[in-house]
Q: What sequence folds into this?
């Protein structure tokens, strides 16, 4: 995957490179939602095991932080960007 991105950056013609970048970015947006859903399902499946896999073990296996695993399980993106803020009130 990294090699493919390097190839896009190596395109000599600036317009062709910009077109390729646009294609990659558009595709990434479409994939990001599916990938977040797939990653969340893995976390949910691990937590549903008996006994449940700990957040720390899931974090280690997936290469993310403990808080990210908790956010993923709660349905947040995992980046913390859409996590409710402390003290935030509804309405």
A:
């Amino acid at each position: 995957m990294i090699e493919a991105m390097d190839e896009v950056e190596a395109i000599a013609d600036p317009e062709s490179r910009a077109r390729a970048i646009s294609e990659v970015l558009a595709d990434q947006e479409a994939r990001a939602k599916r990938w977040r859903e797939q990653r969340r399902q893995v976390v949910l499946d691990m937590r549903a095991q008996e006994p449940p896999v700990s957040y720390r073990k899931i974090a280690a296996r997936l290469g993310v932080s403990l808080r990210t695993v908790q956010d993923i399980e709660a349905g947040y993106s995992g980046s913390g960007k859409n996590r409710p803020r402390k003290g935030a009130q509804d309405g």
